[in-house]
Amino acid sequence: MASPTALKGSTPSTRQWRVVDIVVASVIAVAVGVLFFAWSAGYSGISVLTAGFPPLGGLYTGGWLIAGVLGGLIIRKPGAAIYCETLAAAVSALVGTQFGISVLLSGAIQGAGAELVFLLFLYRKWNLPVALLAGLGAGLALAISENILYNALWSLQFQLLYVLFAGISGVVIAGLLSWLAMRGLARTGVLSAFAAGRTADV
Amino acid sequence: MTAADMPSPGAVRVRARGWGWRHAGRRAFAARHLDLDVRPGERVLLLGASGAGKSTVLHGLAGLLGSHDEGEQEGELLLDGAHPAAARGRAGLVLQDPETQVVLARVGDEVAFAAENLAVPRDEIWQRVGRALDDVGLDLPLDHPTTALSGGQKQRLALASVLAMEPGLLLLDEPTANLDPDGVLEVRDAVVRVLERTGATLVVVEHRVAVWADVVDRVIVLDAGGGVLADGPPGTVLVQEDTRARLAAAGVWVPGRQPAVGGTMPGGPGSSGPDASGAAGEVLLSAQGLGVARTRRGPVAVQDLALQVRAGEALGITGPNGAGKSTVALTLGGLLRPRAGTLTASPGLAGEAGGDPFRWRSAQLVQRIGSVFQEPEHQFLTASVADELAFGPRQAGVADPARIGAVAERLRLTHLLQANPFTLSGGEKRRLSVATMLATAPRVLVLDEPTFGQDAGTWAELVTLLRELVADGVAVLSVTHDADYIAALGGSTLHISGGAGRLVSR
Amino acid sequence: MSNDYLTPVLTGRTLLRANPVSKLFAAVVITLALLASIDWVSAATALACELALMPLLGISVAGLARRIWPLLVAAGVGAYGTALLAEKTGAVLLDVGPFLFTEGSVAAGVAVGLRGLALALPGIFILLTTDPTDLADALAQKLHLPPRFVLGGLAALRLVGLLVEQWEMLGLARHARGVGSDGSVVARTRNLLGQSFGLIVQAIRRATRLATAMEARGFGGGPRTWARESTFSALDAVVAVVGLLVAAGAVTAAVLAGTWDFLLS
Ligand SMILES: Nc1ncnc2c1ncn2[C@@H]1O[C@H](COP(=O)(O)OP(=O)(O)OP(=O)(O)O)[C@@H](O)[C@H]1O
Ligand SMILES: Nc1ncnc2c1ncn2[C@@H]1O[C@H](COP(=O)(O)OP(=O)(O)OP(=O)(O)O)[C@@H](O)[C@H]1O
Ligand SMILES: [Mg+2]
Ligand SMILES: [Mg+2]
């Protein structure tokens, strides 16, 4: 039987999505999507603070990347990161953010950033470094797409700084926090239906 | 019985050979060594002690115990010769908890959901929806929101949405728990009506046998250790003295036999309670002109309540579903702000904390008034039964391992100490939530439906425990539909209906 | 936050009758046109058209403002940020220490602000006039998205809405167990975090159970039918055409005015 070390490295026995995978992934995505709404509202405040030097706003962006990394870490199936991040974005659009339905595109791109990292490890490794890398992947995807879509009028050195800050934010907020959240959730036993939550025998 | 003699073509045959299932993360098998043959159209009442594996068997029949990620299977279980997961749509299961199985936002869509999944043509779906709603007597517009339903209505909706599958095997897991006595009969009659029309096979799990004994052909009693304890027509299993004795010993409810309860009837002759000792029922809480409501602005559930809660007395709170019993309980427990009137704690109860229980800090409240919610899962905060039991006492700063151990022992939770609270069986969850409150030893206990889903053995143990507490001077308030329980604890009864409470003392 | 964000009170009779897919189409075309270029003419044109269509929402100006004020703030901040960072071309308007604003940079800022607003409004239109169940029906039947995922998402949306309502109940339960929202600021914050975590745990717990309930009713394998047919009507053609017109109008106006600035060029 799986031991607590399974928290880090265990992989589901099938690549197929079960119903429980779909519903739980959706719930995680919707819950995070609601948080996005608050996070987006907070962004207005933060951007006033970073107004002196807007690329600093990149440090805040990690919050939008949690859905993909967390969903990927918990569900551990191909497509989970993209699905969760896109659905979370869709929900935040439904709830109403300043980014309108263009967040659907952003969500898919950011989710793909995290997904790519999980794919690189062939959906086999789920430890802290992979989580941090997935956060980084999502952060870079975010920064590059934002630079093209929204910050296009910034000059190049500011755009590069934005990439740096978004990458850091992705690693710390999306990568580290998601990993901690995944571990915390696994300890409560609610993830017992998932490879992420297999714990010791009783 | 005609239904069994002339099965409808759709009815399902069940066959189990040495079947067993162990949940991942548990060492013990939840159900084991099961050999069964159920003929098409037969109506089976499945009994067994709490935790014996009844729900697990129903899940197995419904094809929900699938992959080896989730556990380990032994032997075979077949519906009409096929694996249950392959016989999708043949079995329809109403889960133990109707609250958590609502999928969609509108009543009509909810009932149609299962038929859609089975690829029933659109016109026929709506015919089935209408028929299912008629069958269970749920007379609501199709676009009625599924959130705005009372406990009884939810139970009916869950039943209707499974009936719309027109299953050949109907599986019901405690379909009448939490219903008021009228609701119980209505739901049972709805099931019988449907079976008469469709001829489907029925397997129903219920602790209280009396409701179903007249309408089933066969009673099967699961042994907690695996295998079957008794199997036969109700006229035999529930009547013959030797099987009755065996069932009673295993903790199964047997009609017409009260489980032996220890302790003394509070206030009864020979009681060593406060009446005898002279400290005759010090008033702990008193309510004056109390109006209670769930929300700050929402409708008032019950108005103008006047009552006194005394040390060493039991108070039962009864009434139909949706009358406001739980709302009253939460208010008396110091958790909801009274909408009108006052709720005052006597100095003897309040100590240094002040007279208004609603204003107490959490750590103060937990030492003075213990509340057990209707929905056990709402109260679970930790990842193991042991932590859960130790949690309240630690918050209150009165941790007493011996007391905790004793409570766990008496409520049969000792073998589950390391288990996750959320994976317990329905009855085990209920016992745990009661145990968590007993562990902190408050002077007032407010229990919302403390005995639902309990077998006779744990019921008797629980009642005994509460009797002892009452004798020790604790005030026990219980919201309940269980007449035996009220009779066993004595005290007065507050009957709530139509927005008003009527106190009946004896 | 209250539940009605997830199951909003729908307004706007006309658009309520339109198929969600046609509304989505219109919103996507307008969004794409806006995304393609950052210039004030296309943004202003699209925004003006959207504002002209506002009466279709049947919501008062004050009601709308209460809902979308964060969008207004965000648009303002976006405009300011760009004005500060964009290439400094044209005459200097303001120069205080590091804060340098020129005609060119301010024009860029205005364009970004207008564009932000114009991007946000189509989402609001859809939010206020679309029932989630209808949306799911349409996505699965008309766009042929995988039904398992569409329905899983729909069920999750409802579940989370319910849980947001249950926040209060969870608070009561914790209070009864001896962990409440009293004490110092630190204790309060810890309790709030604990309660939020508890809510997420409950959400996943309920989701697992809901998945079982859905499977118990035959969900998850094989083909399925739909009890409610998602249909297109003449109204949907109108909605789609209006969307195309707004998008085309914005692009044309910008090209004619010579401000069109294709992003990927
Ligand atoms: N998901 C699960 N994970 C681990 N163990 C479980 C799970 N569900 C049930 N169990 C355990 O399996 C055993 C049988 O549970 P089951 O729910 O079948 O009992 P039951 O007969 O229905 O009891 P009750 O009358 O209390 O509902 C119990 O000991 C329970 O703790
Ligand atoms: N969380 C809630 N928010 C708002 N209203 C509620 C809530 N829970 C219940 N109600 C409503 O408050 C009223 C009283 O409900 P309450 O739960 O107190 O009834 P009850 O007597 O305990 O019923 P039951 O026997 O079904 O448990 C009902 O009309 C119910 O619909
Ligand atoms: Mg059970
Ligand atoms: Mg109640």
Question: Could you characterize the architecture of this molecule?
Answer:
The complex is a heterotrimer of chains A (202), B (506) and C (265). Chain A is an all-alpha fold and 202 residues long. In chain A, 67% of the residues lie in helices and 0% in strands. The longest helix of chain A is centred in the last third of the chain and has 33 residues. The radius of gyration of chain A is 17 Å and the shape is globular. The N terminus of chain A is likely disordered. With 506 residues, chain B is α/β, with parallel strands linked by helices. In chain B, helix 4 crosses helix 5 and helix 5 runs parallel beside helix 6. Chain B is globular, with a radius of gyration of 24 Å. The two termini of chain B are 45 Å apart. In chain B, 57% of the residues are buried. With 265 residues, chain C is mainly alpha-helical. Chain C is 70% helix and 3% strand. Chain C is built from 9 helices and 2 strands, in the order H-H-H-H-E-E-H-H-H-H-H. In chain C, helix 4 packs antiparallel against helix 5 and helix 7 packs across helix 8. The chains are: A mainly alpha (202), B alpha/beta (506), C mainly alpha (265). Chains in contact: A-B, A-C, B-C. At the A-C interface, helix 2, helix 4 and helix 7 of A face helix 2, helix 4, helix 5, helix 7 and helix 8 of C. One adenosine-5'-triphosphate (ATP) binds next to helix 2 and helix 16 of chain B.
Describe what is shown at a glance:
The complex is a heterotrimer of chains A (202), B (506) and C (265). Chain A has 7 helices and no strands.
Describe the secondary-structure layout.
The complex is a heterotrimer of chains A (202), B (506) and C (265).
Chain A: H1 6-9, H2 19-49, H3 66-75, H4 80-95, H5 102-120, H6 128-149, H7 156-188
Chain B: H1 2-5, E1 14-23, E2 31-38, E3 43-48, H2 54-61, E4 71-79, E5 91-94, H3 107-117, H4 122-136, H5 151-163, E6 169-173, H6 181-198, E7 201-205, H7 210-213, E8 218-222, E9 228-232, H8 234-237, H9 241-249, H10 274-277, E10 283-293, E11 300-310, E12 314-318, H11 325-332, E13 340-345, H12 347-350, H13 362-368, E14 369-372, H14 385-396, H15 401-410, H16 426-439, E15 444-448, H17 456-471, E16 475-479, H18 483-489, E17 492-497, E18 500-504
Parallel strand pairs in B: 3-7, 3-8, 5-6, 6-7, 12-16, 12-17, 14-15, 15-16
Antiparallel strand pairs in B: 1-2, 1-4, 8-9, 10-11, 10-13, 17-18
Helix pairs in contact in B: 3-4, 3-5, 4-5, 5-6, 13-14, 14-16, 15-16
Chain C: H1 13-17, H2 20-36, H3 40-53, H4 61-85, E1 92-96, E2 99-102, H5 103-129, H6 132-141, H7 147-177, H8 185-216, H9 234-257
Antiparallel strand pairs in C: 1-2
Helix pairs in contact in C: 2-5, 2-9, 3-5, 3-9, 4-5, 6-7, 7-8
The complex binds adenosine-5'-triphosphate (ATP) (2 copies) and magnesium ion (2 copies).
